[in-house]
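Long-time lurker, first post. I've been practising inverse folding by hand and with some scripts of my own, and I keep getting stuck on stretches where the structure tokens seem ambiguous. Below is the full token string for one chain I'm working on. Before anyone asks, I'm not after the true native sequence, just a reasonable design that respects the backbone. If someone could post their per-position residues I'd love to compare against what I wrote down in my notebook.
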């Protein structure tokens, strides 16, 4: 699957140094979604590394239904 390209525009100061970046809302949302995916993967890896047991999704769903 090809990665969609993000097209940034830069704001520069008087000396030509890039100081800010401007993204379209679409590109910003893509970047935000990718960042959230990375954070989710990091959190999952941390949970796997530190937890001794996991609750299967089916059991969790049953427990939540009973509480309602």
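-- Answer (accepted) --
I ran through it position by position. Result:
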């Amino acid at each position: 699957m090809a990665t969609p390209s993000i097209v940034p525009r830069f704001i520069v100061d008087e000396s030509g140094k890039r100081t800010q970046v401007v993204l379209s809302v679409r590109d910003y949302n893509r970047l935000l979604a990718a960042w959230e995916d990375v954070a989710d993967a990091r959190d999952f890896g941390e949970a796997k590394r530190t937890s001794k047991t996991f609750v299967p999704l089916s059991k969790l769903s049953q427990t939540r239904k009973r509480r309602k």
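A couple of notes from the structure itself: The chain has a mean pLDDT of 89. The helical segments are 25-50, 57-67. Happy to go over any region you disagree with.
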